[in-house]
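Bug report (template v2)

What were you trying to do?
Predict the complex of my protein with S-adenosylmethionine.

What happened?
Run completed; filing so the output is reviewed.

Input:
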Amino acid sequence: MSERSGTLADDPFGGRRPTSHERMTGLPWDASYRDGPAPWDIGRPQPAIVRLASAGGFAGAVLDAGCGTGENALHVAALGLSVLGVDVAETALAIAREKAGHRGIEVAFAAADVFQLGRLGRMFETVLDCGLFHTFDGDERTGYVASLASVTEHGGTLYVLCFSDAGPDTGPHPIRREELRAAFNPGKGWNVAALEPDRIQTRFHDDGAPAWFATIKRI
Ligand SMILES: C[S@@+](CC[C@H](N)C(=O)[O-])C[C@H]1O[C@@H](n2cnc3c(N)ncnc32)[C@H](O)[C@@H]1O
């Protein structure tokens, strides 16, 4: 038996509880990034995020929760904002850092669990969730929403771009409008300011999949 067996080094989840998505697939998120681009990894920022950035939607310190290989974070950082992208997938973070280096963009990428954002010891004026919320089941959402609240400044803004149930051709994990409103309610410190239909581009949809684009204010 190797000396390392049974230690954290053998744990593909790094000591954290696997998420519902990981339990369903039987694989850590990191595995999605090891053999070429993941289905959501389109090699450019999501058009909805580009539009938002052009409209001045990002301000202050920005957190990209579940940043993947960093295209959205890199786009926002290239505008001159201070951006931290966090993810549990080390392979994705390595790719993101490499892109930042090649493009000469100043941005930070760190390994962190979005259920423990308080451990970052920082607050953010703008937080982005692009494609992460919809991967969590109902139980996980409660902890995730509280974790987001712990690092979002009062009056700050959270943007969520997630798959919607407004078909046809819905993506995996379609979310109902009411689910977003239930997760981010005033009792939990949030106010949904806008909830609009949008699209999420993937590598497998010609014109993207139906999405919700939510603007959520931290009370
Ligand atoms: C569907 S991907 C979206 C990635 C990126 N935002 C994009 O638009 O390309 C979801 C990302 O969230 C990350 N993730 C999942 N659970 C996480 C957790 N508990 N903490 C941090 N990141 C997580 C995954 O590793 C993955 O990179």
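What did the reviewer find?
Strands lie at 62-65, 83-87, 108-111, 124-130, 152-163, 190-200, 209-218. The first helix runs from residue 20 to 25.
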